[in-house]
Amino acid sequence: MKLSIFTINWRRYLSIAYLPLILIAIFILQTHLFNIFLGIGLKEYFIRRSIISLSLGVLLFAPAILLKPKIKYGYLFFITCLTALVFIVQYLYYSYSGGFLQISSIFYAKEGITILDTVRTLLNYQLLFFILNPLIVIGVTIYLYRKKIPECLLTKKEKINAGIIIMAFILAGYGYLLAREYADAGNIRHLYQYNKLFNINAFESKVGIINFSFGEIVHEIIQTDKATAADMEFLQSWTNKGTIADNSKKNFGLAKGRNLIIIQVESLENAVIGQKINGQEITPYLNQLLKDSLYFPNYYTQIGPGTSADAEFSTLNSLYPLPDTVAFIKYAHNDYLALPGLLVKNGYGTYAFHGDVASFWNRANIYPQLGYQKWFFGPQNYTIPREIGVYDLGDEDFFAQSLPKLQSLPEPFMATFITLTSHSPFKMPPDLESLIIPATSTLNATQRDYLQSVRYTDKALENFINQLKKNGIYDNSLIAIFGDHGSFSNIGKALGVQKTIFPGLQNSQVPLLILAPKTKLKGVNKSVASHLDLFPTLANLLGITPPSSVIGRDILNSQEHVFSYRNLLSGTVQIVFTDTIAYHASDDGIFERGLCLELPNKRIPTENCKELYQREEQKVRASDLLIKGNLIKTTFVK
After folding, report:
1. Residue with more model confidence, 378 or 413
2. Residues with Cβ within 8 Å of residue 45, at least 6 apart in sequence
3. Cα–Cα distance, 294 to 320 (Å, whole number)
4. Is residue 375 scored above 80 in pLDDT?
5. For the sheet containing 294-296, what is the strand order?
6. Which residues touch 134 (CB under 8 Å, ≥6 apart)?
7. What's the rounded Cα separation, in Å, for the pair 65 and 72?
């Protein structure tokens, strides 16, 4: 059957389709108003969002013209009420938390009762724009039935033509979106696997909030991360074996009752600590702080596609990050036994500070599950007096504006700070570049910019710690400062610094400093450690026993210090080492072909590393199953 736009009676179609067309036009307007009201992606993706909203509007409303009148208006009323509900719920949720509601959170709906009073304060006239469509459908329906105006019906041939036109609009819009994504990124995988995107706002800006929400529903339906009987049997066997017992409780409760302040520094590598460029210290304040802290130079990060979010996840949960997805996004509504939640049970208030929006890395959704009670993020809590770096809010302004908020908190509190300025591409205003790097330097442009940004952040940390001292918070706090991950700039090699066993790990080595003022906790601890170990170590110092779910070990008490590095493509352990031995897997995965070393550099039979390697492989597998199967509480809380 041929379809020709020249033979279609468009006037007849319009006389039947006028109401769906009006609803589609309003739907596109509502999609834009949602973003305008909330200040999300106003310009950058306007055309993309318009086209995809048109296609979705056609998909939702246009099928009504194929239905009988009695069914048609009921269908339109249902669809308009559904979209209005999504608009309103997402608007209120974003206004409250700074992030978008994920469909998986429906299982936690009862928790929303506790914030009803807050939600009421968010109601305003803007919400009226999102109930226009249901009102229009009701109004047109009442008018037609009162006036007894007969409805025209499409013939069978016209319905087929209309169906083809509808499909053409839908395919054209979504095809355009995929084509633009391919042009932007060279592939389209990250669009429909948006759990890998660090900026949920950017994704929503492209497709609109209704597309985003429906995509969440589809994702939840097709998700297959269910633990099998074999998985459960493995977990049971693994937990029954237990871990190597600590030989003591050294320093247990040394900082009992103190505030806990955790500062996660963007892209801070251990390679710059104690180093100079052109006779100038790169991190003069951190170098000075080493004298007052317990410094861990053999401290490592293990990250997946979530980078900073993975570092935060591992630190707060003592679990491995996932190699193929981001737990902060895909598993935000899991039941965790995280450090903030543990401290809440021990009388602490728990707070997070970050200069970016709360939807970045989906923190607004996962933070309640981790045990945070309140967070200070983005434009709601910070102003940008001067744009610095890629995220605009400079670290000096971030800390300066965070300090009054910190001072207002009841003690004891846990407060985490995440810096931004030393994030790639490390661009700093010229007047804030305090290092003099000669033009003849062998450093490339990225490395120069990285050192300048780190030097700036070092100064920001100095100002912040000095203010803590001035305001009396410092002496009553336990403070941890660490790098989230490396700079990916090869700065260690450029500075001639090699502090790792295997060169490939240089970018994964970050500094950890723990400060417990007016205690004996000072010096250098060269034990191998990682983000997984910070949770149990801090809990020990605070005099709190961590849950059995922690994968890491208390660095100060563990009989064995170990670090495992995963291959992100295969998910398997590629490198594992302790204070005495190290193993590097071969590319083909055959264990016997790997490299086993007695440190510092004596090759020994691979059999000497086998038990260690297998144990670490099991830990990684167990961690993945606990996260993907949401089995943490069911496994460890009896």
Report:
1. 413
2. 202, 205, 206
3. 24
4. yes
5. 374-377, 349-354, 413-418, 259-265, 477-483, 512-515, 294-296, 523-524
6. 77, 80, 81, 84
7. 7
Q: What is the per-residue pLDDT for 181?
A: 72
Beta-sheet pairing, 512-515 with 276-277:
unpaired
pLDDT digits (tens, 9 = 90+) for 218-239: 766 666 667 788 888 899 889 8
DSSP β-bridge partners for residue 299 = 529
pLDDT at 110: 43
Distance between CA atoms of residues 207 and 47, nearest Å:
10
**pLDDT confidence tier of residue 169, bands split at 50, 70 and 90:** confident
Q: Give the pairing type, strands 276-277 and 413-418.
A: unpaired
Instruction: Say whether domain 233-636 belongs to CATH 3.40.720.10.
Output: yes
Q: Which of 343, 347, 378, 346 is nearest to 363 (CA)?
A: 378
600 upstream amide cis, omega within 30 of 0: yes
Q: pLDDT band for 276, please (50, 70, 90 cuts).
A: very high
Closest CA to 421 of 451, 464, 444, 443: 451
Higher-confidence residue of 568 and 355: namely 355
Give the span between the Cα atoms of 548 and 342, in whole angstroms. 12
pLDDT digits (tens, 9 = 90+) for 7-32: 455 566 666 778 889 999 999 999 99
Compute the mean pLDDT over every residue in the chain, rounded to the nearest whole number.
Answer: 87
**CA–CA distance, 57 with 170 (Å, rounded to integer):** 9
Sign of CA dihedral 375, 378, 384, 388: positive
The structural domains of the chain, with segments of one domain joined by +, span: 10-222, 233-636
- Which candidate, 347, 316, 479, places its Cα nearest to that of 413? 347
- Number of alpha carbons in the 13 Å side-chain half-sphere of residue 537: 29
pLDDT at 395: 96
Closest C-alpha to 260, from 379, 346, 378, 385:
346
d(CA 438, CA 454): 18
**Mean pLDDT of the 147-151 span:** 68
Residue 213 has pLDDT above 50, yes or no: yes
Question: Of 627, 633, 634, whose CA–CA distance to 329 is shortest?
Answer: 627
Beta bridge partners of 577: 563, 582
Tokens coding 314: 């591992």
The tokens for 329 are 């996004």
pLDDT at 12: 63
Nearest 5°: CA angle at 500, between 494 and 501?
A: 130
Q: Give the pLDDT of residue 330.
A: 85
Q: How far apart are CA 133 and CA 198, in angstroms?
A: 33
Residue type (1 letter), 545? T
Give the orientation angle of helix 156-185 with respect to helix 46-61, to 10 degrees.
150
Answer positive or negative: Cα dihedral of 365, 367, 546, 107: negative
